[in-house]
Design goal:
With about 190 residues, the protein is mainly beta. It has helices at about 115, 135-145, 165-175, 175-180; strands spanning about 10, 25-30, 35-40, 45-50, 65-70, 70-85, 95-100, 105-110, 125-135, 145-150. This is UPF0301 protein CLV37_106292.
Length: about 190
């Protein structure tokens, strides 16, 4: 595989049945020769952001819940933000990728006082943990057919319907991938 997958989406194919990733949508935050790191953007937990970072709760995008970003380092928090338009990165934000006309997505330093940057953000999600791959591991999983690699839109990480995101992203691809969106979770029930 050539090129970085940073800013792209990994959608679990129906063949990926590992409980950590079945029907997951992963936003790749970094991908290089050393490996890859991303967050699962469609797994909200039944925990308000206020339970871990109360100062950030008023600024969290609905549903205002903590998301399980992946199986690695579940005791750590990672903040993902949307910056509208072509604005420069606010203080404490590092841009991950930009979408033409849709703004950019970045990581926020959660030690930054939220009130100093909240006016410059159009979305905020807090993730417990992340997904990580060692050098060559993700490329091997893609080659084995575990992941669809698709273009991300800035709004994907802040979807109003995170539970529906896997199917929504597949349907917007059209063609055969749109058909995969209706693939049953349990093929034995088909």
């Amino acid at each position: 595989m050539e090129g970085s997958l940073t800013g792209r989406l990994l959608l679990a194919t129906p063949a990926l049945t590992d409980a950590n990733f079945a029907r997951s949508v992963v936003l790749v935050l970094n991908h290089d020769d050393d490996g890859a790191l991303g967050v699962v953007v469609n797994r909200p937990l039944d925990v308000d952001v206020a339970a871990v970072l109360p100062d950030w709760q008023p600024f969290a995008t609905a549903p205002g819940k903590l998301f399980q970003g992946g199986p690695v380092a579940l005791d750590s928090a990672l903040g993902l933000v949307a910056v509208p338009g072509d604005h420069p990165d606010p203080q404490g934000v590092r841009r991950v990728f930009a979408s033409v006309g849709l703004g950019s997505v970045g990581l926020v330093d959660l030690d930054t006082p939220p009130e100093t940057i909240s006016a410059e953000l159009s979305g905020l999600r807090i993730f417990a943990g992340y997904a990580g791959w060692s050098a060559g591991q993700l490329e091997g999983e893609i080659a084995e057919g575990a992941w669809f690699v698709l273009d991300a839109e800035a709004r994907d990480a802040f979807s109003d319907s995170p539970h529906d995101l896997w199917g929504d992203v597949l349907r917007r691809q059209g063609g055969d991938l749109a058909l995969v969106a209706s693939f049953p979770s349990d093929v034995s029930m088909n």
